[in-house]
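Running log. JK asked me to keep both predictions on one page so they can be read side by side. First protein, sequence followed by its tokens:
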Amino acid sequence: MTAKTVDVRETQATLAELVSQVAEGAQIILTEGDKPIARLVPISLATKPRVPGLHAGSVWTSDDFDELLPEEVAPRPLTSSAVGLLWREKEG
């Protein structure tokens, strides 16, 4: 599929025509001068419905997946009470 390039300053006058072309499957690259800034593409609707459970059993999650990581890997953020204590020590 070849994309048509249009300067963004031209789009206001030709927007309806551009949208019509995109609806027919064209891609439009919007530019500012020579710099591409956006792409207009048709929305592709799913042609087949998704099937729940299609890949059941193909993904494995460890039993400790939702446990906290070790402190050396991911240090815990300070709690609000710890921040308050540190602030009082700094002022005191």
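And the second, directly underneath as requested:
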Amino acid sequence: MANTITVVGGLIVAIIGLVLWWLFRFDFVTVFKGCIGVTLFFGGALALAIGISEMRASKEFEAAVPSTTEAKTEEQKPAEQTTETAASQASESAQSSETKEEGAS
């Protein structure tokens, strides 16, 4: 029952609106023409604000995230560093195993 009342009420309001639009069509056109300039102004202002916000966000993002060239240079570290790291890990594990053997005796 509530859906029927909603549909009938909406139909009545739509018909009244159509009749009033027809009666005041010249006034409507005048108001519509006046709204075009205001809409363009606020649309342009909104686009400008969004553009400035996006530029600031991209600068902050670029500052926070390293560029791909920096990431590539870190990946292409010399093999010497890798060998040194492996050697230091091996010596640490040998020291820890010696410490365990001494503690067991």
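Observation for JK regarding the second prediction: The chain has a mean pLDDT of 79.
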